[in-house]
Task: structure prediction
Amino acid sequence: MTKHAGYVWPSYGIAALVLVGLVVLSLRALKRTRAELERIEAQMPRDKDEA
Result:
């Protein structure tokens, strides 16, 4: 693999960076969505029958 190492290892690095980026973006979106859900639920009227 010595002949192709100059292409293979950077490709692994780029793939790893893309995967880490996707995880970070997904976690940010999850946090934003949960905050929006909490805001929406706070605006809903509460039922007295709910426990």
The first helix runs from residue 5 to 43. The chain is about 75% helix and 0% strand. The helical segments are 5-43.
